[in-house]
C-alpha cells in the first residue's frame, strides 16, 4: 500500500531518495483513495474536496483525483455517492515465492515503479521502494525482472491497446517526467509550469511535480539547460569543426572533479540556454581538463566562448584564483581563514562575502560497502579503528566474520582530506596493511563491487548501487546519508560545495555563469549531476523518529522535562522542512547557507494552503545554563522569523500563521563536545502543519 510516508511526502518539491520516517498512527485527515478496479491506491492527507475532485497533499505536489471511479475510505472522506465495486481477490503469495528486484510498468507506459518485490497479496504486488511499500494490482502492470513470479491472471493486456511509436507533433502537450535515478516515471499532458513545478494531466488527475526532482522529455518541455555535445578527445589547439581557427580559452574554472566533471558542464549548459546556444565539451590534450564551448544558433553558429574546466584540489583551485590563473574556483570545502586573509592582502576582496562566495550544492561523503554486507550502520569510533588498522575483521563490528578490505581515495584528494579530518580529527591518517588506494571515486565503486569484504567512502553522487551505511556519533546520535540529511546538514560527513571569485577582475560571462549556478533554475541540473540541491524538501515527523525515541528514553531534570514534553507534543502536529537556519557562536546572524535558502523557502511557503501553521523552532548548544539556552533558542527563532518575513514581498505570507518555539539544548543534531558539533546544534528548524 502507498502509505502516508510514501506518497504523502514524495509528491511535494523534494529530492529525498533515502529512508523516510513513518508516522505510528493515522492522522485524522488521512484517507485512502482506491480506484474501483483496484488498479491504484493512494493514502495521504485530504486537503479538500472541490469540483468533484479529492485534493491530496503529496511530496510531488498536490494531487487532484476525480471522484468518479474512486472509493474514499477514512473519517475525513466527504459524504458523496461513489461506486464501490468489489475487487476480485487473487492468489496470495505463492509458496515458492522468492521476490527480488522488479520493474512494474502500466500498459500505457504512464507509470513505472522499480524496487524489490516482497510479497503478493490479494492480487497485488507489494514492492518495497525508496518511497516505502507500494501496492499495485497484478493485472494492471507488466512485471519485468528476476524477482517476478509466475502469476496467473485472466489477461495481461489492457482493454484498449495503445499504439506504439506515435508521431508526436511539436504542439503535442504529452510529456514524460522521470526521476533522475530512473525509479519513477509519469506520463501526461503538460498543462503549465508554475512556481518551479510541472503541472501535468494524467488518468489520475492533475500532478504537480517539482522541476528539480525530475527530467522532462517531450516537445512541450521547457528548456532547462541546453544540449551538451560530447566530442571525442582532441587537442584544444587543433582546428575545430566549425572553422579553421584554434579553440581559444576564454577563462579557466578549476577545482575538484566532484564539481567539475559533471555538474559544471550542466551549469554551463543552463547559462548557454539563455543565449540560445548549445555546449560542446571537448577533452583537452594540451591542457589537463575539459573545454566547454558555447555554440550559437542552437549549435549551428559560431563559437561564443570556451571555458577550460581544469581538475584541481580545492586548495589548488583557490590558489589558482588568487594568482589570476582562473576566473572561478570550485571548492568542496569552505575557504580557510589563511586563504581569506591572502585575498584581502592582495586586494582581491573578501573571499567569504556574499559577492564572492557562492554555495551551490550539498553532498554527503557516504560510507559504503558491498550490497551483500549485512552491516547497516557503523560508529565513527569503529570507522576510525577500521581505517587506523585496529579493527580488521567484520565480526568486531557485529558483522559476519572475515577480514575487512579497506579502500581509501588518493592522498591529497578532497574526499580523503575531508574523511581524515572528520574521522581522525587531526590525530592521524588512514593506515593498515589491508588497505587499497583508489585513484578516483569510480575506482572505489568498482573495487567494492568486486569484493564483498570491502569498505570505502564516496560522494552521494557516486553510490552506484553500493550499500550506504548510517553513522553513529560518539554521543550515540545516528544519521542516515540521504538527501534530506544533506540538506539539513545532520549527516556526520556532510559537506558544502562552493564556487568562489575575485572581487577585482570578474569576467562578465563568468558572472552570468555564477548567477545561474546560484539560481533556482540550476536545481534540476544539480540533481541531474547526482548531487543535492538547495530546493526545499519535506519530511514527516512522528513518534518513530530516532530523536523522539532518544528524548523518551532519557531522564531529564524536572526543570527540563516540561520543555521535552512540549517538543514531543509538537512533533506529532508538524512536518519538518529541510531548510535549517544556523548561526555563529552567541550570534543571531544567519550563515551563508541560510541566507541563500531564504528565497526558496518563501516560494515554498507561498504554495501552502491558506491558514497553514508555519513554526520556526529554535535550538541551542549546551554551553551555558539551560534556561539561558532556551531563551537564546527563542531569540534565534524570532530572528529567523524576521528574516523570512523580510524576504517575503507584498504580504505573500500573510495568509499563513507564522509563530516561533524554542527548545534550547534538547534534541541535539550533533555532539556538543566539539566546535563543529555545537555549531550544528545552534539552529532554527522550519515546521509546517500536517
From TrEMBL:
Domain of life, source organism: Bacteria
Pfam families: OmpA (PF00691), PBP_like_2 (PF12849)
Family annotation (InterPro entries): OmpA-like, OmpA-like_sf, PBP_domain, Phosphate_ABC_transporter
Residues covered by the OmpA-like domain: 570-690
UniProt KW Transmembrane keyword: no
Keyword terms of this UniProt record: Membrane, Signal
Signal peptide bounds: 1-28
Cellular component, GO, one term: membrane
Coiled coil: none
Protein name per Swiss-Prot or TrEMBL: Phosphate-binding protein PstS
Species: Aliiroseovarius pelagivivens
Gene expressing this chain: pstS_1
